[in-house]
Amino acid sequence: MRINPTPSSPAVSTQNLGRIAQIIGPVLDVVFPPGKMPNIYNALVVKGRDTVGQQINVTCEVQQLLGNNRIRAVAMSATDGLTRGMEVIDTGAPLS
Known about the structure:
Elements: E1 17-24, E2 27-31, E3 42-49, E4 55-67, E5 70-75, E6 87-94
Antiparallel strand pairs: 1-2, 1-6, 2-5, 3-4, 3-6, 4-5
Protein backbone atom coordinates (compact mmCIF):
# COMPACT_ATOMS: atom_id res chain seq x y z
CA MET A 1 0.00 0.00 0.00
CA ARG A 2 1.31 3.42 -0.90
CA ILE A 3 0.31 6.43 1.16
CA ASN A 4 0.51 9.84 -0.44
CA PRO A 5 -0.76 13.31 0.40
CA THR A 6 -3.95 14.23 -1.44
CA PRO A 7 -3.01 14.44 -5.14
CA SER A 8 -5.48 17.25 -5.82
CA SER A 9 -3.72 19.49 -3.31
CA PRO A 10 -1.40 22.23 -4.55
CA ALA A 11 2.30 21.45 -4.84
CA VAL A 12 3.98 20.74 -1.53
CA SER A 13 4.89 24.04 0.07
CA THR A 14 8.46 24.33 1.22
CA GLN A 15 7.61 27.43 3.23
CA ASN A 16 5.99 25.57 6.12
CA LEU A 17 8.99 23.67 7.41
CA GLY A 18 9.52 22.11 10.80
CA ARG A 19 12.27 20.08 12.45
CA ILE A 20 12.11 16.73 14.22
CA ALA A 21 12.51 17.25 17.97
CA GLN A 22 11.92 13.68 19.21
CA ILE A 23 11.40 10.20 17.77
CA ILE A 24 9.89 7.34 19.77
CA GLY A 25 9.13 4.39 17.51
CA PRO A 26 6.58 5.53 14.90
CA VAL A 27 5.80 8.75 16.82
CA LEU A 28 7.50 12.03 15.92
CA ASP A 29 7.41 15.32 17.77
CA VAL A 30 8.04 18.19 15.35
CA VAL A 31 8.69 21.87 16.08
CA PHE A 32 7.33 24.48 13.65
CA PRO A 33 7.90 28.25 13.57
CA PRO A 34 5.34 30.37 15.46
CA GLY A 35 2.17 30.83 13.41
CA LYS A 36 3.02 27.96 11.03
CA MET A 37 1.43 25.05 12.90
CA PRO A 38 -0.14 22.39 10.65
CA ASN A 39 -3.73 21.26 11.17
CA ILE A 40 -4.59 17.94 12.77
CA TYR A 41 -4.67 15.14 10.15
CA ASN A 42 -2.38 17.06 7.77
CA ALA A 43 0.20 14.95 5.96
CA LEU A 44 3.83 15.71 6.74
CA VAL A 45 6.75 14.53 4.64
CA VAL A 46 10.29 13.84 5.86
CA LYS A 47 12.80 13.60 3.03
CA GLY A 48 16.55 13.31 3.24
CA ARG A 49 19.35 10.82 3.65
CA ASP A 50 20.24 8.63 6.61
CA THR A 51 23.73 8.32 8.09
CA VAL A 52 24.80 5.79 5.44
CA GLY A 53 23.49 7.86 2.53
CA GLN A 54 20.27 5.97 1.77
CA GLN A 55 17.27 8.02 0.63
CA ILE A 56 14.53 8.56 3.24
CA ASN A 57 10.94 9.45 2.33
CA VAL A 58 8.52 9.07 5.25
CA THR A 59 4.93 10.34 5.28
CA CYS A 60 3.37 11.15 8.67
CA GLU A 61 -0.03 12.32 9.90
CA VAL A 62 -0.49 15.04 12.53
CA GLN A 63 -2.36 13.60 15.53
CA GLN A 64 -1.96 16.17 18.29
CA LEU A 65 -1.05 19.82 18.85
CA LEU A 66 1.20 19.81 21.93
CA GLY A 67 1.65 23.56 22.43
CA ASN A 68 4.90 25.55 22.35
CA ASN A 69 4.91 25.21 18.52
CA ARG A 70 5.15 21.38 18.73
CA ILE A 71 2.99 18.74 17.12
CA ARG A 72 2.88 14.97 17.50
CA ALA A 73 2.63 12.88 14.33
CA VAL A 74 2.50 9.17 13.53
CA ALA A 75 4.64 7.80 10.71
CA MET A 76 2.97 5.67 8.04
CA SER A 77 6.16 3.67 7.42
CA ALA A 78 9.36 2.73 9.25
CA THR A 79 11.23 5.56 10.96
CA ASP A 80 14.63 3.88 10.61
CA GLY A 81 17.26 6.47 9.73
CA LEU A 82 15.32 9.51 10.95
CA THR A 83 17.25 11.78 13.30
CA ARG A 84 16.51 14.83 15.41
CA GLY A 85 16.84 18.02 13.43
CA MET A 86 15.71 16.58 10.09
CA GLU A 87 13.48 18.87 8.04
CA VAL A 88 9.73 18.15 7.92
CA ILE A 89 7.41 19.60 5.25
CA ASP A 90 3.73 20.30 5.97
CA THR A 91 1.80 19.44 2.79
CA GLY A 92 -1.21 21.48 3.90
CA ALA A 93 -3.53 18.58 3.05
CA PRO A 94 -4.68 15.33 4.67
CA LEU A 95 -3.59 11.86 3.59
CA SER A 96 -5.66 10.23 0.88
